[in-house]
Amino acid sequence: MIVVAGEALIDLVPHAAGALANLRPALGGGPYNTAVALGRLGSPTAFCSRVSSDAFGEALLGGLREAGVNVSSVQRGSEPTTLAVASIGVDGSAAYSFYVEGTADRLFTAPAQLPDTARAVSFGTCSLVLEPGASAYEELLRSAAAQGVFTALDPNIRAVLIPDADAYRARFTSWLPSVSLLKLSEEDATWLGGTPRDWLAAGPAAVVVTRGGDGLTVFTRDGAEHSVPGEKVDVVDTIGAGDTVNAALLHGLSVRDALSPAALAGLGPDGWTDLLRLAARAAAITCSRAGAEPPYAAELGSL
To answer: Can you point out the beta strands (E) in 42-164?
Structure first.
């Protein structure tokens, strides 16, 4: 089982251009999207979070169940669901403003233990920024790594939510010894101010950098670097594309029985190229339709 830990929220997505365009509520949150994508790809998946008992929260749980995701580890609370208001650029890129004060997911507490069948845990996005939940997710990251569980991190920077950039950068660096696979966008890398080689030296076995339509590159501890181009597609928007990459990487590693640092080191050029192509294909499908709608396994062809 792959456990995805982090927030579930509602994206309010505009139907047209302009600040006063009608907004459509959509199920979202980076970790939530990753869990749904993993479920659609056929990986046994569990979601670990705290979700509101309001109508939005019920809809979020319904989306997870529909994708086949186990929700037995989800905590519930009466506080409202976090809202993210999206604005879509002419190139399909999305920017967000957030309504997070007093919301349910911020009050997450670390579970006493992971499911016995957990082979990997994925972390990222707002859940690692907003306290007190951020400290609880950090505790879970460190404890999972200490138990030898494969860990994946996508910081998915939302700078508007980070009051002290330098403090966050230092905290990010402190997580790296507990991270098996680091995935981040070029924009995240620029904001964080480091390099893949810097981060590899701190702990991860591999670092994957996404470059939008230009594709993906992986950097590995042995000094290797492997890249694939992006797949050409008519972009509707990019919502959930990076989360789909997370899911495709984890799913691909799982079916290859490669959810360990040692197995990552043994993938080699062909293995990494196949894995990155899978991720690029999955992300392209997500970009071809509105909102975070990751593909099903049947849409990807051979895995």
So the answer is: 45-48, 50-52, 75-77, 83-88, 94-99, 120-124, 150-154
Pairing of strands 225-228, 216-220: antiparallel
pTM above 0.90, yes or no: yes
Mean pLDDT, rounded, for 16-40: 89
Closest to 292 in 3D by CA, of 248, 250, 236: 236
Q: Are 13 and 92 in contact (CB under 8 A)?
A: no
| Structure-token pair, residue 23 | 């907004």
How confident is the model at residue 132, as a pLDDT? 96
Find residue 84's DSSP bridge partners. 11, 98
Q: pLDDT of 108-135, one tens digit each?
A: 999 999 999 999 999 999 999 999 999 9
Cα–Cα dist 26/62, whole Å:
12
pLDDT digits (tens, 9 = 90+) for 212-252: 889 999 999 999 999 999 989 988 888 889 999 999 999 99
At residue 289, the 3 state secondary structure works out as coil
If DSSP codes are grouped into helix, strand and coil, which group holds residue 215? coil
Provide the pairing of β-strand 2-5 with 206-210: unpaired
> Looking up tokens 């994708």, which residue turns up?
67
Strand locations in 59-174 (E): 75-77, 83-88, 94-99, 120-124, 150-154
